């Protein structure tokens, strides 16, 4: 499908029939897969497809004026097929450039720190057929803070092979013990103990096993995995090889989000170098039966594919819908075989544990959170970017390091996490206190909390796969509640219903998206209670609100108008 999209600009009816015949499935199934992913199109697009990030950091940095400038210069409208042979414009969720907003992808080449003047220049060059690769931006990892050398885990000198060379003197059990001693947990947000996951897969007797690197960091505000893929792709690959050594896997896949397509050649070049050095392939480093092959597969724009079973479904060429938890991937995973799915940061950390030894980690972090954590910090700060910090650092210290201006509302782990207020800035980032998957968004006292929540609820409404009712309906209801808040029509009853729906979604949703999408809304009501009290009507006032007929029939009118065109 990527081949068709890249060569034709869309996936035609003819191509759909050919794909269906090739795979011996119906055209409806093929269309179902295509329609699931944001970057696949069934209608012709222009020569240049522009995806403009609409996340909240972009919104506060000038999204609207950039959007207007793109439309004016291209004479196109966003999110519509304009029959323009040169340009197509689409909004998209976070593209991993929150520290360089507003940002866009044009034919998957990144353009950062956009201004109206820069947009005008870009469009002019494209109209003049100047090759896009000659003037696209080359985003760097803005590494803003790293601990002293003896406490750094990730951003220290990397020598290819230094980690996996230790496998000659290790056993699968000894590595599991090391991973367990450091208490390494998944760094994608679930925080499941890595040693337990690896041990479960190791104990499976299947002759075929897989290692999958989850490089689909789609949580808005998160870009720390991208930094590792830019600066240390080899370290991540070594982590995969170590996992393969432990569990007995002989094949691996890096699932790279479509938004990071511009990193593909760099990663594939690193893989080629590993093969040349006998770090991949047969009998790696002369170790009998250590055979491991690796390839990269591209995602196509679906947030839910960050969930491990949805990711596996996507890799199998299906819609990225989360599986029912009848089996864990360590039992039945990719192609029905035992599979390890680990986050980029988790694998890099595992490689450093094997390279540096467990003693190195004992004096870094807290009792239950050893080592360091990578954080992506964005928003109202003077120094947005990547921070490698010791577990146990306080939010207050983080805000000092990134030079936050009048911080009021801090979003931990992105929209699926929780927000905190000023009274909680002494809390610590660690497993024992404030758990953080990797994103921290800082908003000052001048920002509208309702605008933040509207952006988040709109994101989840759009990204829900729709397969389960609690998530599909729940996110729509939360979005409607925020619209009532915007109009000043909310009551205390509405706020309670938001919490009630959040609990229903947590208990009954099929996957993590639905279980966590209400987190921020619910915690915001608690943490900023005084703010919301000023935004709601009392019960007497609510009885006097006139019925808004125009708004009530707006959706009906739009359907009628569209049917007449």
TrEMBL record:
Family: Belongs to the complex I 51 kDa subunit family.
Domain NADH-ubiquinone oxidoreductase 51kDa subunit iron-sulphur binding: 450-495
Gene3D superfamilies from the UniProt entry: 3.10.20.600, Glutaredoxin (3.40.30.10), NADH-quinone oxidoreductase subunit E (1.10.10.1590), NADH-ubiquinone oxidoreductase 51kDa subunit (3.40.50.11540), NADH-ubiquinone oxidoreductase 51kDa subunit, iron-sulphur binding domain (1.20.1440.230)
Residue ranges of the TM segments: none
GO MF: 4 iron, 4 sulfur cluster binding; FMN binding; metal ion binding; NADH dehydrogenase (ubiquinone) activity
Any Pfam family matching the protein: NADH_4Fe-4S
Name by which UniProt lists this protein: NADH-ubiquinone oxidoreductase 51kDa subunit iron-sulphur binding domain-containing protein
Keyword annotations from UniProtKB, A to Z: 4Fe-4S, Iron, Iron-sulfur, Metal-binding
InterPro entries according to UniProt: NADH-UbQ_OxRdtase_51kDa_CS, Nuo51_FMN-bd, Nuo51_FMN-bd_sf, NuoE_N, Nuop51_4Fe4S-bd, Nuop51_4Fe4S-bd_sf, Thioredoxin-like_sf
């Amino acid at each position: 499908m990527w081949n068709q999209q890249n060569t034709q600009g869309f996936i035609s009816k003819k191509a759909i029939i050919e794909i269906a015949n090739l795979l011996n499935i119906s055209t409806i199934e093929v269309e179902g897969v295509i329609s699931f992913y944001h970057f696949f199109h069934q209608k012709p697009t222009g020569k240049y497809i522009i995806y403009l990030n609409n996340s909240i950091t972009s919104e506060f940095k000038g999204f609207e004026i950039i959007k207007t400038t793109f439309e004016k210069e291209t004479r196109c409208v966003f999110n519509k097929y304009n029959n323009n042979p040169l340009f197509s414009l689409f909004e998209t969720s976070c593209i991993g450039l929150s520290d360089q907003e507003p940002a866009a992808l044009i034919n998957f080449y990144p353009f950062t720190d956009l201004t109206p003047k820069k947009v005008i220049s870009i469009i002019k060059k494209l109209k003049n057929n100047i090759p896009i690769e000659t003037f696209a931006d080359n985003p760097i990892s803005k590494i803003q803070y790293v601990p002293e050398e003896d406490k750094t885990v990730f951003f220290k000198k990397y020598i290819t092979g230094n980690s996996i060379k230790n496998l000659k003197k290790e056993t699968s059990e000894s590595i599991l013990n090391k991973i367990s001693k450091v208490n390494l947990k998944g760094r994608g947000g679930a925080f499941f103990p890595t040693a337990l996951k690896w041990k479960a897969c190791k104990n499976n007797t299947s002759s075929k096993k897989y290692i999958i690197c989850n490089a689909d960091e789609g949580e808005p505000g998160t870009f720390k995995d991208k930094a590792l893929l830019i600066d240390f792709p080899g370290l991540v690959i070594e982590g995969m090889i170590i996992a393969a050594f432990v569990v007995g896997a002989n094949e691996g896949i890096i699932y790279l989000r479509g938004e990071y397509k511009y990193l593909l050649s760099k990663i594939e070049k690193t893989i080629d170098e590993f093969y040349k050095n006998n770090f991949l392939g047969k009998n790696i480093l002369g170790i009998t039966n250590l055979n491991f092959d690796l390839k990269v597969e591209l995602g196509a724009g679906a947030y839910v594919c960050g969930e491990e079973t949805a990711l596996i479904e996507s890799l199998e060429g299906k819609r990225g819908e989360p599986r029912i938890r009848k089996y864990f991937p360590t039992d039945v995973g990719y192609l029905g075989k035992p599979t390890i799915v680990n986050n980029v940061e988790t694998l890099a950390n595992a490689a450093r544990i094997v390279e540096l030894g467990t003693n190195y980690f004992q004096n870094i972090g807290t009792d239950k959170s050893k080592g360091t954590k990578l954080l992506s910090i964005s928003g109202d700060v003077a120094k947005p970017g990547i921070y490698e910090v010791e577990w146990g650092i306080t939010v207050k210290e983080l805000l000092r390091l990134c030079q936050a201006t009048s911080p009021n509302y801090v979003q931990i782990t992105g929209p699926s996490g929780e927000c905190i207020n000023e009274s909680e800035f002494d809390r610590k980032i660690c497993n024992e206190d404030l758990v953080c998957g990797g994103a921290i968004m800082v908003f000052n006292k001048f920002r509208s909390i309702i605008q933040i929540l509207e952006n988040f609820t709109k994101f989840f409404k759009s990204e829900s796969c729709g397969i389960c009712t609690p998530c599909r309906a729940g996110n729509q209801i939360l979005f409607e509640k925020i619209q009532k808040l915007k109009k000043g029509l909310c009551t205390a009853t509405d706020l309670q219903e938001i919490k009630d729906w959040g609990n229903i979604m947590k208990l009954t949703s099929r996957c993590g998206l639905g279980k966590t999408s209400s987190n921020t809304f619910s915690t915001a009501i608690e943490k900023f209670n005084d703010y919301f009290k000023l935004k709601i009507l009392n019960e007497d006032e609510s009885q006097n609100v006139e019925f808004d007929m125009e708004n009530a029939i707006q959706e009906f009118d739009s359907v009628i108008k569209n049917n007449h065109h």
